[in-house]
Amino acid sequence: MSGVNAQGVAAEPDSLFSQGAVRVAGNTLVAVNPGSNSVSMFTIDPTDPTKLTLVGKPADTLGEFPISVTISTKLNQACVANTGAKAGISCFSMSATEGLKALDTNLRVFDIKQTTPPVGPLNTVSQTFFNADSTALYTTVKGNPAVNNKGFLSVFPVKNGQVSTQDVRSSPNGTAVLFGSALIPNSSNIFVTDASFGSTTLAISSNNTATVKAMTTIPGQKATCWATISNFTNTAFVTDVANNHLVEVNTMNGNIINTLVLQNGNQGMIDLVSAGKFIYALSPGNVTVPAAVTVFDISGGSGTAKEIQNFKPTGVTGSAQGMAFA
């Protein structure tokens, strides 16, 4: 199932309006299933990572149209964000033999008045993710500037090993369409894209409210929505589904370090991950352009990203969603 645009047509190529549809921890992979309102857990064969084995059965997310999932190895839990007519968060324990088991009987509701499938990308849930020490669960939710509907960052504290049912919400000044996020190492700050202008660094206070620490307006951006942070360069990288470039940003002051414009024929990129001296970014593809994974070498340090491969996997249909590094 795909989200739809304002005309009710299937949204392409960004059909889920989200970051984090797939997550990997060790030899475990968890993925959302928007068409069945469920989430599935798999084991990854360590000798053949293309071989996945379903563990248990797909679990009901209690909501509609799940689009993002996160894993806490500390809590041994996974939480899922839904963005359909029943939007909100549900959490699960993770068992190596039984798979995902519900920890909730009720959804942590986001009353965004959506439909199933959702009309987006505005006014939809973007991403859910745990902070570094799993003491809080963060979720970004987009607003709609055209109708003065502010997006927000939701923070559910974790108490006694369980994600609480009451969150703290804040709409940092100047933000509107909060989307993909990444934790800034050795900091309580987070780096978040905002499709209305570029990206921002948010400071999270002790009472779980967010304020803007740095803001970046990206020239020529159309839909800057996905983010990762490299531990090698200590900088952020963002992608745009409608502009085929990779932008590197200083998370401390918001300065743009480098913009790499690509000439590989892809329309743009969505989910991306950093791994060592490389960045991997997914180009979702559509009915005419195949999906691809573009690989960037950042071994030269900050400001030196260069494309070294544009891999087009066989059998992958258009609007490919979600990517993780195992």
Which SSEs are present, and which pair or pack?
Layout: E1 22-25, E2 28-33, E3 38-44, E4 52-54, E5 59-60, E6 66-72, E7 77-83, E8 87-95, E9 99-102, E10 108-109, E11 125-130, E12 136-141, E13 152-159, E14 162-163, E15 168-170, E16 178-183, E17 190-194, E18 198-204, E19 210-217, E20 224-230, E21 235-240, E22 243-249, E23 256-261, E24 272-275, E25 278-283, E26 292-297, E27 306-311
Antiparallel strand pairs: 1-2, 2-3, 3-4, 3-5, 6-7, 7-8, 8-9, 8-10, 11-12, 12-13, 13-14, 13-15, 16-17, 17-18, 18-19, 20-21, 21-22, 22-23, 24-25, 25-26, 26-27
Shape from CA axes? globular
Overall structural class, as computed from helix and strand content, comes to mainly beta
Q: What percent of the residues sit in helical stretches (DSSP H or I)?
A: under 10%
What distance lies between the first and last C-alpha atoms, to the nearest angstrom?
A: 26 Å
Portion in strands: over 45%
Number of helices: 0
Evaluate the radius of gyration: 18 Å
Count of strand segments: 27
Succession of helices and strands: EEEEEEEEEEEEEEEEEEEEEEEEEEE
Main sheet characteristics: 5 strands, antiparallel
Task: Please describe the structure with a list of short key phrases separated by commas or semicolons.
single chain; mainly beta; five-stranded antiparallel sheet; 326 residues
